[in-house]
């Protein structure tokens, strides 16, 4: 009987490696300003999925509220999580500022959407299904 990890879709396989790296990320808006509506969250998710694809990273789950977003990312060991985070925040801020000009004054204080800080946690301690369920349950503005 082969080990369970040989058939697990979360496992990335290389020539000599077997890896499962997943992180739960949370980004908050500058000064926790409540700026996101459903349209902005939907576009933010699309932008972040594209950034993840550029990094050979998969955005497994995304959700948020008016002042923060949650992401569950599955990434290879060649990706520095801090570089991924900087790109996710930078690209999403630029795109949303360009596309939601009517909300620019409220959302982008001094050209910044996101707080410079972020939360990142390895998902190895909890089953990924638990983290996914938590992110799915985050409330989107109505």
Automatic annotation (TrEMBL):
<dbReference type="Pfam" id="PF01797">
    <property type="entry name" value="Y1_Tnp"/>
</dbReference>
<protein>
    <submittedName>
        <fullName>IS200/IS605 family transposase</fullName>
    </submittedName>
</protein>
<dbReference type="InterPro" id="IPR036515">
    <property type="entry name" value="Transposase_17_sf"/>
</dbReference>
<feature type="domain" description="Transposase IS200-like">
    <location>
        <begin position="18"/>
        <end position="138"/>
    </location>
</feature>
<dbReference type="InterPro" id="IPR002686">
    <property type="entry name" value="Transposase_17"/>
</dbReference>
């Amino acid at each position: 009987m082969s080990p369970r990890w040989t058939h697990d879709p979360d496992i990335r396989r290389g020539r000599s490696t077997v890896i499962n790296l997943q992180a739960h990320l949370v980004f908050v808006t500058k000064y926790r300003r409540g700026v996101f509506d459903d349209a902005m969250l939907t576009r933010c998710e699309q932008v972040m999925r594209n950034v993840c694809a550029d990094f050979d990273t998969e955005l497994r789950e995304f959700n948020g509220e008016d002042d923060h977003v949650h992401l569950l990312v599955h990434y290879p060991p060649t990706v520095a999580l801090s570089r991924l985070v900087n790109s996710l925040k930078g690209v999403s801020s630029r795109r949303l500022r360009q596309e939601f000009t009517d909300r620019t004054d409220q959302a982008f204080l001094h050209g910044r959407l996101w707080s410079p800080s972020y939360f990142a946690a390895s998902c190895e301690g909890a089953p990924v299904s638990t983290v996914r369920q938590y992110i799915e349950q985050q409330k989107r503005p109505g």
